[in-house]
């Protein structure tokens, strides 16, 4: 209820009720103070007009039946009319005045009249007077006009009047009834009217609330009324569009700024990571190069063979450092999206066979058997350079970690089509020790080595599998490692052409 009276609709309803009550109160005051006077004023004027009419037409030769005219005048104004001549005899009248008419001051009749109390004189001049009289016997009130006509006759006009106070009370009751009806009908009307006005205002308020929450989807529908509400709705629509456009631009600028900041952060992170990795991994080769260089300078070994050995060690470590730095740079660019992939169709089986051929000497030295399970050609769609990096890392990793099982060192490479994914799954299995379960997820981290005791000559850089992870993340296809019965199997998937 409180919310209703605080609304525009409630305020308009209250305003209407107050206005109606004030108008009715004003009418009641006017009714009580003016009606009685106005009533007597109207009766007085009616009697004066009747006197003038009779005075002018009593001897008019054009009026053949003057009694009929008096009858009309009497019926029209509810008068009793009597005209007497100088001998106090009735000259003309509108009806038979048998019975009590009353005693007229200063005039005597040949009939008996009840005595009337003389009241206020309403009007008086040389020819006539108008007075208010009260019949004490019957409790009736009258207005009596008594005047002398131009022909010397005396005119009496008697007008019965109702109790004006009773009329005022009746009138006030009518006004009260009108007030109640007006409030009810006004309430219905104001409810209908305010519904038309408050509904668009509520809609505008809802739009404004949504705009405050940065929601600019709702717009005000113009009603083509060309009024202030339509103008306000149009203005809000314009503001909404401008705000929406401005906020969209700000968001775009903010996104660009965030991308710039993120890019700068990536570059800083890459620089820090690169420095950290290089400083960590280059300690050993730098120490070796430094030690053997000092040995050469100080001529620790004077024979040619020893000096050549020192020089070979320095060159070998330098090559390893060069390879490490190149791989680190490549890994950084892959991880931070700085590399572009140039995908094309190529035969994956032919690529794997080429890698095996290039490793023939190493395989023969270690007496490793390689078995390739595939039916060619196997056409895939990817960047052949990076897919070769993945296969080569898996194959090199298998050679480095292979061990005899059942008297054999064996590597099996298989290619299987995964139809539901539209991919080819490449698996590289080598016989050897299984990887501990807690290390299966760690081996993809740069520089992580399962065998801590592995020497530097066969241990690699420790970033090969990290490169594989970075490449496969770019393609979004599946890759991983699984422990098998007699060894370990690495796998990855690539899209079919």
The side-by-side strand order for the widest beta sheet comes to 2-1-6-5-4-3
Return Rg in Å: 62 Å
Order of helices and strands: HHHEEEEEEHHHHEHHEEHEEHHEE
Low-confidence stretches: 96-118
| Shape estimate | rod-shaped
Main sheet makeup: 6 strands, antiparallel
Beginning-to-end CA distance, first to last residue: 73 Å
Strand content: 15-25%
Helix content: 40-55%
Class derived from helix and strand content: alpha+beta
Strand elements, count: 13
So how many helices? 12
Average residue pLDDT: 78
Summarize the structure.
With 497 residues, the chain is of the alpha+beta class. The protein has helices at residues 2-6, 8-57, 66-77, 164-212, 228-281, 283-297, 304-335, 348-358, 360-365, 384-401, 456-459, 464-475, and strands spanning 80-84, 90-93, 117-124, 128-135, 140-148, 154-161, 344-347, 368-373, 379-382, 409-418, 423-431, 479-483, 487-495.
Walk me through the structure:
This protein is α+β, with helices and mostly antiparallel strands and 497 residues long. Among the domains are: 2-167, no CATH class; 341-495, Heat Shock Protein 90 (2-Layer Sandwich). Helices cover 54% and strands 18% of the residues. The chain is built from 12 helices and 13 strands. It has helices at 2-6, 8-57, 66-77, 164-212, 228-281, 283-297, 304-335, 348-358, 360-365, 384-401, 456-459, 464-475; strands at residues 80-84, 90-93, 117-124, 128-135, 140-148, 154-161, 344-347, 368-373, 379-382, 409-418, 423-431, 479-483, 487-495. The model is unreliable at 96-118 (pLDDT under 50).
């Amino acid at each position: 209820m409180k919310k209703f009276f605080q609304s525009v609709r409630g305020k308009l309803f209250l305003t209407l009720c107050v206005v109606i009550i004030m108008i009715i109160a004003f009418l009641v005051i006017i009714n009580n103070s003016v009606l009685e006077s106005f009533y007597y004023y109207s009766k007085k004027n009616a009697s004066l007009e009747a006197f003038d009419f009779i005075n002018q037409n009593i001897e008019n030769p054009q009026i053949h039946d003057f009694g009929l005219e008096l009858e009309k005048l009497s019926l029209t104004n509810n008068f009793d009319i009597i005209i007497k001549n100088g001998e106090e005899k009735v000259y003309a009248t509108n009806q038979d005045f048998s019975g009590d008419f009353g005693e007229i001051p200063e005039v005597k009749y040949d009939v008996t009249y009840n005595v009337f109390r003389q009241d206020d004189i309403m009007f008086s001049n040389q020819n006539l007077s108008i007075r208010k009289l009260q019949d004490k016997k019957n409790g009736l009130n009258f207005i009596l006009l008594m005047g002398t006509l131009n022909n010397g006759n005396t005119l009496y006009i008697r007008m019965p009047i109702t109790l004006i106070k009773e009329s005022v009370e009746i009138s006030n009751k009518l006004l009260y009834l009108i007030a109640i009806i007006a409030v009810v009908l006004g309430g219905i009307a104001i409810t209908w009217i305010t519904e038309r006005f408050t509904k668009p205002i509520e809609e505008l308020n809802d739009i404004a609330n949504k705009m405050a929450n940065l929601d600019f989807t709702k717009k005000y529908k113009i009603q083509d009324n060309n009024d202030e509400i339509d103008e306000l709705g149009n203005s809000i629509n314009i503001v909404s569009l401008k705000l929406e456009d401005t906020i969209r631009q700000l968001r775009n600028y903010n996104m660009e700024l965030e991308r710039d900041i993120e890019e700068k952060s990536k570059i800083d992170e890459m620089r820090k990571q690169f420095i950290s990795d290089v400083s960590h991994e280059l300690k050993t080769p730098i120490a070796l190069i430094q030690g053997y260089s000092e040995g050469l300078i100080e001529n620790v070994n004077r024979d040619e063979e020893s000096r050549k050995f020192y020089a070979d060690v320095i060159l070998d470590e330098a090559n390893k450092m060069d390879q490490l730095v190149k791989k680190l740079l490549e890994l950084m660019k892959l991880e931070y999206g700085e590399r572009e992939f140039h995908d094309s169709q190529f035969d994956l089986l032919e690529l794997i066979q080429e890698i095996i051929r290039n490793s023939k000497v190493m395989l023969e030295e270690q007496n490793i058997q390689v078995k390739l399970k595939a039916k060619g050609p196997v056409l895939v769609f990817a960047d052949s350079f990076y897919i070769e990096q993945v296969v080569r890392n898996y194959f090199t990793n298998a050679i480095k970690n292979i061990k005899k099982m059942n008297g054999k060192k064996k590597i099996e490479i298989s290619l299987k089509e995964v139809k539901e994914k539209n991919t080819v799954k490449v698996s590289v299995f080598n016989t050897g020790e299984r990887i501990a379960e807690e290390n299966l997820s760690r081996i993809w981290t740069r520089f992580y080595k399962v065998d801590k005791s592995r020497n530097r000559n066969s241990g690699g850089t420790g970033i090969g599998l990290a490169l594989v992870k970075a490449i496969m993340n770019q393609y979004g296809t599946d890759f991983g490692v699984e422990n098998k019965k007699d060894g370990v199997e690495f796998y990855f998937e690539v899209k079919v052409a």
